[in-house]
Inverse folding.
């Protein structure tokens, strides 16, 4: 192929039509409180891990809902399971179970 | 798609287009990109429609490319544009018609600015007077040349030797229409049909027998974007925008793309070649591309002008498949000859894009 | 035309020997009817003027009400029944002119004898935003773009929700803030009730079509009133409605009339596109041209949002700068039914006090 000195940019939008939403459906079946998030960011605000590394559980959660799970494996390893997120959540989302379930989903779906 | 919904919007965006006596200003780049187009406009206006179209040899660039690349400041641009208005006034004309969409957008922007800030206009008049000794009257009517062709589309249809009909199937030619961003995106009321569902090209396509394709990325820019293209490292953005459009329109199997901007046909045409060379993609049937036309070229084709007089041989995406569909005759032997029979040279054959 | 509700019709020209004062209520929706019902009809002549053939306003077109999803008809019936038999209801009547002479108002109606009254109530309500103004959303152009009002009519008529091709939609987008909080259409204000209407309608679609995926595109979900938040909770917990925080940027039609919508998913910070079979536009409140016209005739003041201004937003929210002219309900801006009814009852008290004591504030 020829090289003209510039490149073709790939479409960066979230394509819900193309994305794999199996993980989110799996999570919803095992942890229905996943549905209750209102995206307020309390969890990320208090997250122990998030204060030291680039880890945004609110963002990971939202990405998952859209079927964006590319960096999920490395992201999930950042969680320390302290449970503060669950304490502050105004909707009572069971975040620890959520993270465990996500890890299980990664193992199963790959 | 409810066509009556579009028609209602079109009714809201009607603009006044002068009947005759046009002061015509050419584009800086079109004569290189699509060398037959402006000539064809003049030929149609003078020979077919018997209109008075005047050109002034002292006309220069409006510096719109410099303006949109953040090189030329607005004050300077306004003074240059004031000079073009002065040329019009000196030539005894009142109706200003531009060949270029960016010029049209810029003239519109300046006239709007002056309307809202009359002191700016006074200052520009002063600058122009000091620099050149010239004075001007603002145009009574400002139109883009595609507005003018739109206005006379029915007259052109009456004189046409061909229709936008596929002679093999008897069905209308499927056309993607694409207007330049500076035509009506900045001032929707200044374009025929507004910004969301522009009608200027649709009207031509419908009246000349074709059918318009409304595809999801119809509103997306061709990608030129001035700095996107002008800086080589950014050029990929320009290409990627065009690709987004091609990917979106391809499932509708368009027979051609019709444009009214200097940049859009350039990029929609040339990028098809670049994409084919970079990734091996072609968007037409059997390795063909989707031919891209200016409205003057299309009007000339309908009127039965020789395709090589229209400059169709300098397109990167060969236009022959479209000519064959409509049944417009052409002589392949003369494709790369000048009017007096000299060779203009032959381009390299592309790797993937089918060449004629 | 006069409805048969009044069995003893008072003479329309005020008889000065008669003690009864007359109140003219313009607008026969929930607001106007509640005012009529809350005023003591044995003490005053009450005339209700409605431009449509039937009273009831927007609520008459609605199927069920948020947050409880009770039928709208229940509330409408209640309000209608609250009006005494001697309230005169003139429907299909348009006001051509209003004259104020000292303390009396003379209203000219189309082709009828003028009516004279001691107090005038503007209960002319609102219009729904004309979604065609958001050209990029394609309402009136793309086959499968409908408004929240049209969806409500489908529910009301007991029809099944289908696409324009008669298919059961698999995925629906609900678009919040259409014509509200939008400077481009000149409406900076929030229409207040669309958020909860969108959540209510999402649930109702799920009740009708359990397999249908629903995505709500919002900027904020303003669940300000009692039981609204609970409805939102139910939408997430019980019905699995997807909420995406991002305003609809544009909409285009795919081959086959499905729609592709583009927005920013602000929570992930990415642009987002998706195909839906239909979109529902939650159209907001706009001041009606009729309200503006009547307000001009009475020299009433208008706020920047185009809705009418009362004497004082806190403690005189029903009287105006013109003594004897009162405002009630959505002429003053977006309002839900609960607030409208409370406001209308407050209006009735203020009018009564004005007509007895002459104090308008």
């Amino acid at each position: 192929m020829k090289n003209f000195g510039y490149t073709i940019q790939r479409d960066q939008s979230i394509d819900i039509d193309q994305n794999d939403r199996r993980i989110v459906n799996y999570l919803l079946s095992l942890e229905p409180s996943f549905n209750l998030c209102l995206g307020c960011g309390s969890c990320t605000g208090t997250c122990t891990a998030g204060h030291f590394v680039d880890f945004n559980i609110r963002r990971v959660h939202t990405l998952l809902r859209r079927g964006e799970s590319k960096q999920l494996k490395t992201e999930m390893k950042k969680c320390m399971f302290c449970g503060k997120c669950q304490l502050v959540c105004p909707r009572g989302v069971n975040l620890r179970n959520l993270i465990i379930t996500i890890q299980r989903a990664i193992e199963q779906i790959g | 798609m409810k066509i009556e919904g579009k028609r209602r919007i079109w009714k809201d965006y009607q603009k006044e287009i002068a009947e005759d006596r046009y002061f015509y200003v050419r584009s800086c780049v079109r004569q290189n990109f699509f060398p037959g187009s402006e000539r064809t406009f003049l030929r149609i206006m003078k020979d077919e429609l018997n209109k008075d179209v005047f050109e002034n040899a002292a006309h220069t660039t409006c510096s719109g490319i410099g303006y949109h690349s953040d090189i030329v400041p607005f004050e300077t641009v306004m003074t240059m544009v004031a000079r073009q208005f002065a040329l019009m006034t000196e030539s005894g004309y009142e109706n200003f018609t531009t060949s270029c969409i960016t010029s049209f957008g810029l003239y519109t922007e300046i006239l709007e600015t002056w309307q809202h800030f009359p002191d700016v206009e006074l200052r520009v008049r002063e600058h122009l007077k000091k620099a050149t000794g010239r004075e001007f009257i603002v145009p009574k009517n400002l139109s883009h040349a595609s507005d003018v062709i739109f206005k006379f589309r029915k007259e052109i249809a009456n004189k046409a030797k061909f229709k936008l009909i596929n002679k093999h199937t008897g069905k209308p030619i499927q056309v993607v229409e694409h207007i330049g961003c500076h035509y009506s995106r900045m001032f929707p009321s200044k374009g025929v049909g507004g910004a969301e569902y522009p009608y200027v090209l649709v009207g031509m396509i419908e009246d000349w027998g074709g059918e318009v394709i409304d595809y999801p990325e119809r509103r997306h820019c061709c990608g030129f974007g001035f700095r996107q293209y002008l800086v080589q490292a950014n050029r990929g953005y320009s290409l990627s925008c065009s690709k987004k459009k091609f990917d979106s329109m391809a499932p509708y199997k368009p027979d051609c793309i019709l444009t009214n901007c200097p940049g859009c046909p350039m990029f929609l045409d040339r990028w098809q070649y670049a994409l084919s060379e970079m990734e091996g993609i072609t968007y037409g049937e059997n390795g063909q591309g989707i031919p891209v036309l200016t409205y003057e070229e299309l009007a000339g084709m309908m009127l039965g002008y020789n395709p090589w007089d229209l400059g169709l041989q300098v397109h990167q995406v060969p236009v022959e498949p479209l000519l064959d569909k409509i049944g417009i005759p052409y002589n392949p032997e003369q494709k790369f000859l000048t009017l007096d029979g000299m060779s203009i040279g032959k381009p390299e054959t592309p790797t993937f894009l089918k060449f004629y | 035309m006069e409805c048969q509700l009044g069995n003893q019709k008072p003479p329309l020209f005020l008889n000065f020997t008669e003690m009864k004062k007359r109140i003219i209520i313009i607008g026969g929706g929930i607001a106007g009817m509640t005012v009529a019902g809350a005023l003591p009809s044995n003490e005053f002549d009450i005339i209700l003027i409605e431009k449509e053939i039937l009273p009831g306003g927007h609520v008459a077109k609605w199927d069920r009400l948020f947050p409880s999803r009770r039928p709208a008809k229940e509330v409408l019936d209640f309000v209608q029944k609250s009006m005494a038999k001697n309230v005169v209801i003139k429907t299909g009547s348009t006001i051509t002119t209003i004259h104020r002479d000292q303390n009396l108002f003379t209203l000219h109606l189309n082709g009828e004898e003028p009516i004279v009254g001691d107090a005038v109530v503007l209960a002319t309500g609102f219009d729904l935003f004309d979604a065609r103004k958001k050209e990029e959303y394609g309402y009136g152009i793309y086959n499968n773009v409908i408004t929240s009002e049209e969806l409500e009519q489908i529910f009301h008529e007991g029809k099944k929700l289908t696409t324009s091709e008669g298919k059961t939609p698999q995925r629906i987008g609900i678009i919040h803030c259409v014509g509200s909080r939008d400077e481009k259409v000149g409406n900076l204000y929030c229409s207040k009730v669309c958020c909860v209407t969108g959540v209510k309608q999402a649930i109702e679609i799920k009740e009708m079509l359990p397999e249908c995926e629903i995505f709500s595109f919002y900027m904020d979900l303003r669940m300000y009133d009692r039981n609204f938040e609970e409805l939102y909770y139910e939408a997430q917990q019980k019905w699995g409605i997807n909420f995406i925080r991002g305003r609809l940027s544009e909409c285009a039609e795919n081959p086959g009339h499905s729609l592709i919508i583009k927005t920013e998913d602000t929570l992930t910070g990415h642009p987002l596109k998706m195909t839906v079979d239909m979109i529902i536009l939650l159209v907001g409140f706009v001041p009606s041209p009729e309200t503006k016209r009547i307000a001009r005739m009475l020299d009433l003041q208008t706020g920047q949002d185009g809705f009418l201004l009362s004497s004082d937003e806190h403690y005189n929210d029903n009287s105006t700068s013109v003594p004897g002219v009162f405002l009630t309900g959505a002429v003053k801006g977006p309002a839900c039914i609960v607030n409208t009814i409370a406001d209308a009852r407050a209006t009735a008290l203020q009018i009564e006090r004005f007509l007895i004591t002459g104090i308008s504030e």
In short: The longest strand of chain A covers residues 14-15. The interface with chain B takes residues 1-2, 4-9, 11 of chain A (CB under 8 Å). The first helix of chain A runs from residue 22 to 30. Chain A has a mean pLDDT of 87.
